[in-house]
Design brief:
about 80 residues, mainly alpha, 434 Repressor (Amino-terminal Domain)
Length: about 80
């Protein structure tokens, strides 16, 4: 499961860029419900896949460092 702090930072990127969860769900090819469960760390949803993370990063023009902070904070010192 992703760190909730990282997901909160990703949600902030969405708000800052004016991108809705529905729009982001369309970008990665999942339903809004599935995206919502993933972004909220719902135990019934799988984590975002690497390809989904890359697609969202490209769409939002995020750097690799920003993506690491959002989705893999446990690997940062």
């Amino acid at each position: 499961m992703h760190e909730k702090v990282g997901l909160a930072e990703f949600k902030a990127f969405l708000r800052y860029r004016g991108v809705s969860q529905r729009e982001m769900a369309d970008v990665i090819g999942v339903s809004l419900s599935t995206f919502n469960m993933k972004i909220n760390g719902n135990d019934k949803a799988s984590d975002f896949t690497v390809s989904e993370i890359i697609a969202m990063g490209e769409y939002l023009d995020l750097t690799a460092d920003q993506l690491l902070r959002c989705f893999f904070p446990q690997f940062l010192a």
